[in-house]
Amino acid sequence: MTKDLTSVESVHIMKDAVNEINIISPSFLPAQKQTIGNKPHVLSLIFGTIFVVLLALFVTGFGYQPWWIFAIVLLLGLGITFPACFSQYWSIDQKQLTITSYSNNDFKKLAQLFNLTSKDQTIINLANIQEASIVYRKIIRLSPFNFNPDHLLLGITTQDGKKIDLDLGNIDYQGLATIVFYLSEAGSKVIDQQEILRLLPENQNLFKHFHKK
Prior knowledge:
Elements: H1 8-24, E1 34-37, H2 42-59, H3 67-84, E2 89-92, E3 96-101, H4 106-113, E4 120-125, E5 129-137, E6 151-158, E7 163-167, H5 173-185, E8 189-191, H6 196-199, H7 206-210
Parallel strand pairs: 5-8
Antiparallel strand pairs: 1-2, 2-3, 3-4, 5-6, 6-7
Helix pairs in contact: 1-5, 2-3, 3-4
């Protein structure tokens, strides 16, 4: 059965859920921006740089090789490591949804990281989102050695008919409840046919739940 969370009753249910979260976790604020995905972080870049420097020193014998060999190994290592530290991410607040994407080309991706070239950014006002669906999508595994994860997605449809799938990753109940709350308040029709919002607060393992035989 489809769960339509745009009804007055459902919006009140979402508000009650957020109030309960406030009691359990006072630091939680429904007005906080939710960011999902692998956003560039200074710490991850710093740790990546330290790792590459140590690796370059090891490969060049800690100074036994000419400095230019160390520089080449260092630049190559950073060119491989930095692009792997971040990828597409998206964020949502009370007013809009912002999707930030990077190039598949590592060199262009590095240039985007350091603002040498612009990254792709799509901004959608929540009032322009007609419908949003929370969907758990299973991967068909033909081999027992296929360890690729399933996908928890937020599929949105804009007023002009454009469809976009956003990865929710390992989002927790607080984050997902806040996203649904924002969308519902903006007048979007939110569908949770698989009742993900009921499963998360019960600490249900989504993979085990949806792969029951």
